[in-house]
Write a structure and sequence with these properties.
PAP2/HPO; globular; membrane; 8 helices; PAP2/HPO_sf; mainly alpha; transmembrane
């Protein structure tokens, strides 16, 4: 049996091994080849994560395969950016609608006057008058003044108290010209010696802004905000039940007060003041 001759090398050197071509194997850089054992076998099927579907990182480069979360959205705080714009805009539109109906003797005005006449006298006279008196400037303004003083001393900031004072000063600046322009007659109980000019209600607007601004200055509690809303509802009910105003007079005053309160709320103090937390 003849042996296959092997190349001879120098002493101590191992014999060189030449590459062998094997059936069923692919070359390392064969492009587009398919079959088992091919390093490029993934070229013949759809990739798991297409390059075009990858999410970019923060600097615009290709990110990781899973979706990369974006930067957190900063909180805009209370009342929130959307609410701070949508709520005043909605109330302003409602006020324009009500004022148009009252000035043009529209259907809403007729319905309003029928409801107002039916409501007068349905509650005890003393109770209705007591609730209506809560909208007097002699009652509401001292409450707001005390809240302004407490807030200024507690938080040592003048922007929120000043914003509340300006909101209160805007009430007569808006209500008096509107009363003169619309010149709506009052309910039958106010006819003797009464002049035209009952829309919007100055008492309802004074109560809404004074008590609302006081709560915004002193606390962030939703319970106090709810109590303030109930108090203003009681004032409005007293004005209607006593026969001092029509229902739309009160509703128009509330719609006029909301943008003022939202503007004052933009200057509310942070939740924690120097040295003591907010209640």
């Amino acid at each position: 049996m003849n042996a296959t001759p092997r190349p001879q090398g120098t002493a101590g050197d191992a014999a060189p091994v030449l590459p062998q071509c094997r059936t069923g194997r692919a070359f390392a850089h064969t492009t587009g080849a398919t079959g088992s054992g091919n390093p490029h076998r993934s070229d013949g099927r759809a990739p798991q994560t297409p390059r075009g579907a990858r999410h970019t990182g923060r600097h615009g480069g290709l990110g990781t395969s899973p979706p990369v979360p974006g930067p957190p959205t900063p909180s805009t705080g209370f009342p929130g950016f959307r609410a701070a714009i949508a709520l005043p805009a909605l109330c302003t539109a409602l006020f324009a609608l009500v004022a148009w109906q009252v000035a043009a003797h529209g259907p809403l005005r007729g319905l309003d006057e029928r409801l107002g006449r039916a409501a007068v006298g349905t509650a005890p006279r003393a109770l209705a008058e007591l609730l209506a008196d809560l909208g007097n400037t002699t009652v509401a303004l001292p409450v707001l003044g005390a809240a302004i003083a407490v807030a200024a001393v507690r938080h040592r900031r003048w922007a929120p108290p000043l914003a509340a004072a300006l909101a209160m000063a805007a009430v007569p600046a808006l209500v008096v010209p509107l009363k003169t322009w619309i010149a709506r007659p009052g309910p039958p109980a106010m006819t003797p010696g009464a002049h035209d000019g009952f829309f919007p209600s100055g008492h309802a607007a004074t109560a809404a802004v004074a008590y609302g601004a006081a709560v915004l200055l002193l606390t962030r509690s939703r319970w106090w905000l709810g109590a303030c809303a109930l108090l203003n509802a009681a004032v409005g009910a007293g004005l209607v039940l006593r026969g001092y105003h029509w229902p739309l007079d009160v509703a128009g005053a509330w719609c006029l007060s909301v943008p003022l309160l939202c503007a004052a709320a933009r200057f509310r103090v942070s939740c924690r003041s120097p040295g003591r937390p907010c209640p």
